[in-house]
Design goal:
Four copies of one chain form a homotetramer.
Chain A (H helix, E strand, L loop, with lengths): L3 H7 L8 H21 L9 E8 L2 E6 L13 E5 L4 E3 L8 H11 L3 E5 L2 H9 L5 E5 L16 E7 L5 H14 L5 E4 L3 E6 L2 H23 L5
Parallel strand pairs in A: 7-8
Antiparallel strand pairs in A: 1-2, 1-5, 2-3, 3-4, 5-9, 6-7, 8-9
Chain lengths: 227, 227, 227, 227
């Protein structure tokens, strides 16, 4: 029997018939992701938001409602929204940053978009904000990013100024994604990490990799003297 | 059916009839909060204390008894006290800092008061004690504090000298709350964090936010050189 | 019905009749302690050892056998030993540092002795070894140590040079305990923490407090500049 | 009744009859190891790989398939391979670094080989790469390494330049093991730790010990000033 999660991503344009089962399966999977991230202190204080694409053209997302504790998400707390942020299924308001999710799915044809808000990304994005991004290189963990074959890969993680105005911020995100077609994620300054993947598993792997790399970079800067 | 937890906060002045159920529900919820905080090392060594308001005028609290392991709280270990710290329900001595809880509920009309004792708050409150407080600004996580709409918010977290004399300390807390009507919490020097909320969930969210922000500030200070 | 754990400490000289039940209860409790410490990274790599007194005069201990994973202890892996380290119950070799446990129970009339081996104690004991100890003061967490009433308490945590020769090391421990009758614990240099209590709960609380205080002290030292 | 895990290591040359049970038992044990390492952030982002020897001469390994989440390993995801990396049992591609596992089992007669990829090993191996290794000495935790009797032991942990070319890298590993016959592990630069043991338990203990020691060394370097 076909895995409904995988098929929801592959023939994502047909949202009908077993749409309910797909939605519930993706929501359940994202709720599990939330528990793991919360345990690692990556989504404290109701921060973070998660989505999976039910369809990419037109964009339809299963996405977290706003203001929820990410360690105690229940599948029924997810919403289905269309590309105008209209809630098609579920009750509640979608995450404030829903527009960014829509933009990422559109630009990258992503199957899932995950946003974490860790101490490490907050520190690192503040330290490197003036440079507009962080260069990550020489680290084996980079090989876990989709399509990367060697630790010699150079990953530019753009840093975008934080804003509460979602429409202009979404436009900056869209431009940034176009300018850096190879980027696997970006940071909002002192706000956190966005990354994505072909499916939830890949997006989750990318979160783990970037969180690892950011922690590594800050801890390396903490060593005050040469050996 | 109405949620007994929510109703206990809304019409909190009528403590009768289903008072038992309310008390037990709040105690059970605070016990769960304790387990989560203990797992994060925020209430080691029997430190920390938690309360929820059964009534605000006059003040009646469900509060932790003193000297308990916060990772293994049982609902029956909670006490009900009135505004003179008299134990109305349960056996044991209330937390030494009960007066501070009473003062906070009175001043802020809080539905719940939580106190954690983390490494980060101990370090930060020592470093900033001479300044009388810590200014937190520019960080997205601030938006999780009740009523805050933007990361451009400036939060002043007052630091109060630590003391073992609860009556005078409660007066300083009361004065501090009056002087800083917008503050969402305060630190006792090298002792820990107090914050509160309309209900237990909001108070817990505030703890997570302040603990995140304090860890972020100390870790940022650890980076010894400019980029 | 009387709690067998408490009674085992109070009238500890009579080891008979329900001695089996006492031993099993203490071993089960210490095994639980081990799981918690392992989860906090305080007893990695089979490090650490734990004991509880079945009798104090003459000394009889329930103690961990050597070389066991402290996160997966089973009660049947504990040994009963007398003051000459003879194994009276159970199979296996007692912890190499059994003599230190015996010395502590003798000197302090302790009901339980716990030894952890954390990163923080390793770092701190190395940094302060030349001073012979660490002074801890001004920190509220000190109040969790038995008999301490105020954060203004000054706790001297002696540091003893590490050694693989247990008989002379036990003599140094004995002398150190006599020289510092108010000390609630001591460090072996780059080896770890020993503390104790009237019962297992108190000893566990002391571990949590000292581990918290050591982490706090090292993290405070990491901040390279004044505010 | 004999423990099938132990016997699989002792008379490892006879792979027949109850080979299925051995394979499944080793795979189940390695899957548990993976869960513990993932919880400690040592194998994020599908990093890390684990093997146990079904036979040492000729080498036959139960080994993780490539690209799997190490926190959710299932025994059926393991492969059996021979010394030419041919898959004898199971479906999927073996870990990219399978050749290194084979080399280690050959050189050290190891019963199990574990590779973690922690923040601490990444930082430490980068800092010490130019020296070709890290000297660890004076630390009690060293005593947990097989055959070490005292904290005065000096452990040289070689650092090998990272590479994506497995055949030449395996030759460097083989030479390094020959040059340092007493080494209990080695680092790949900014990639992670390899260690091994007579069985899975010993290899796991070695991981815990080296991860502890590396964290300790980096944290010690973070203290910017003398006491």
């Amino acid at each position: 029997m076909q895995n409904p999660l995988r098929s929801s991503i592959q023939d994502a344009t047909s949202v009908s018939g077993d749409g309910d089962a797909r939605f519930r399966a993706l929501a359940a999977e994202l709720a599990e992701v939330g528990k793991g991230f919360y345990a690692r202190n990556w989504v404290l204080g109701t921060s973070g938001n998660f989505s999976a694409a039910l369809s990419k053209d037109p964009v339809r997302l299963a996405i977290t409602a706003t203001g929820l504790d990410k360690g105690r998400l229940r599948p029924e707390q997810f919403l289905e929204i269309d590309e105008k942020e209209t809630v098609i299924r579920g009750t509640g308001k979608p995450s404030a940053e829903t527009l960014l999710h829509i933009e990422i799915v559109r630009e990258r044809k992503a199957g899932a978009v995950l946003h974490t808000h860790s101490v490490w990304s907050t520190v690192l994005s503040g330290l490197y904000a003036a440079k507009g991004g962080v260069l990550m290189e020489g680290l084996e963990m980079l090989k876990g990013l989709a399509g990367v074959q060697t630790h010699e890969h150079r990953e530019w993680l753009p840093i975008i100024p934080n804003s509460q105005y979602m429409a202009p911020l979404a436009r900056v995100v869209s431009e940034t994604l176009k300018q850096h077609p190879d980027a696997h994620g970006f940071l909002l300054r002192e706000h956190g990490l966005y990354t994505w993947g072909a499916d939830i598993d890949e997006a989750r792997r990318h979160i783990e990799i970037f969180e690892f790399l950011m922690e590594t970079m800050v801890r390396r800067m903490n060593v005050p003297h040469a050996i």
